[in-house]
């Protein structure tokens, strides 16, 4: 039987916000921003100080965040996109610098795996490149198509001359020469949301689109495997079957193709933690999905963001509107905490070198 653990004395959840904890009223900061914890979500602090050469202190603490990424070559460096600028920190979020201001929404960046000072940014309908650690940017590509924007960008781990861009109209755009020339590799007939590199297979990466959810390529985007077509196991490890005793595939579960968030599970050779409209799943060695039981029934909880300690694969985290959940034993038991802000907990990231250090970014949708 699943245990429901609440470490605080009293937690009341009403209308999407936690109103009391440890017998004291918790004041939620409205809107958006970035928060950091060093103790797995027990205490959070807002991190939005801009580094300035002079004058009064400035902050971007309540900017709507579109993405957050750590530099895989330097765990102290983190990048954050917003609707009007790219922010980056060399001090784990303690101070931020601003670039690419007023160019449009910064939807994604990609870092060259061989040179951390070479970056590519997907900025609305444009692709920019920097070769000097964000000090200057060069426009490499833009789209003149109406309603097309670039949502995701990735540099190949195998060959950094290969750049991939995912567009809102389903175009998978490819450059073979570090952004000098571009062509459409294929159309997936569905908006592309995200790319995730495979840390163990340099020629492989994952793509998220609206129709098929998560797909994997092992040949630099030539062919793709739809992971929603893999079977599902119960939390106890038993294959889910329908009334005819046929294995149930992930995509057959209501809401399971509705992507919410995903991250690679480095504790496995080929593993993913995936949040969907149905619930939370873990890909086991690329062969099947195992459902992770949470405190809500399927389709009841809207999981916006997730994180996993890839060292052991046991520490799991996710955020919904109003609550932060933590499990230290792979989802058998859950601890619930209040969120530090009232916006949508859109992004949850774990520091690559410290599983106790988490970053939570909020988004405040326009009213």
UniProtKB/TrEMBL annotation:
GO terms for biological process: xyloglucan metabolic process. PANTHER family: EXO-ALPHA-SIALIDASE, XYLOGLUCANASE (EUROFUNG). This is Photosynthesis system II assembly factor Ycf48/Hcf136-like domain-containing protein.
């Amino acid at each position: 039987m699943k245990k429901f653990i609440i470490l605080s004395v009293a937690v009341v959840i009403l209308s999407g916000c936690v109103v009391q904890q440890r017998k004291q009223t918790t004041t939620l900061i409205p809107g958006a921003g970035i928060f950091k914890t060093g103790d797995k979500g027990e205490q959070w602090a807002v991190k939005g100080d801009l580094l300035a050469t002079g004058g009064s202190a400035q902050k971007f603490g309540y900017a709507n965040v579109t993405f957050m990424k750590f530099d895989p070559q330097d765990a102290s460096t983190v990048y954050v996109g917003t609707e009007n600028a790219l922010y980056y920190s060399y001090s784990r979020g303690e101070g931020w610098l601003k670039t690419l201001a007023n160019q449009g929404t910064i939807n994604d960046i990609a870092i060259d795996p061989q040179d951390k000072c070479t970056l590519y940014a997907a900025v609305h309908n444009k692709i920019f490149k920097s070769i000097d650690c964000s000090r200057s940017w060069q426009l490499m590509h833009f789209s003149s198509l109406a309603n097309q924007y670039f949502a995701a960008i990735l540099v190949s781990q195998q060959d950094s001359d290969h750049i991939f861009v995912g567009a809102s109209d389903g175009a998978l755009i490819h450059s073979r020469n570090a952004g000098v020339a571009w062509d459409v590799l294929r159309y997936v007939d569905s908006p592309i949301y995200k790319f995730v590199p495979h840390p163990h297979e340099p020629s492989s990466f994952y793509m998220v689109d609206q129709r098929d959810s998560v797909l994997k390529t092992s040949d630099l985007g030539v062919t793709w495997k739809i992971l929603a077509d893999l079977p599902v196991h119960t939390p106890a490890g038993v294959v889910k079957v329908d009334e005819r005793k046929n294995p149930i595939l992930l995509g057959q579960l209501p809401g399971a193709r509705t992507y919410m968030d995903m991250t690679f599970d480095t504790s496995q050779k080929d593993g993913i933690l995936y949040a969907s409209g149905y619930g939370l799943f873990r890909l086991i060695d690329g062969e099947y999905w195992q459902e992770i039981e949470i405190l809500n029934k399927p389709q009841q909880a809207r999981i916006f963001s997730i994180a996993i300690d890839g060292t052991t694969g046991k520490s799991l985290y996710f955020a919904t509107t109003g609550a932060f959940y933590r499990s230290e034993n792979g989802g058998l038991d859950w601890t619930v905490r209040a969120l530090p802000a009232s916006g949508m907990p859109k992004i949850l990231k774990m520091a690559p070198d410290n599983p106790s250090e988490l970053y939570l970014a909020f988004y405040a949708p326009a009213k």
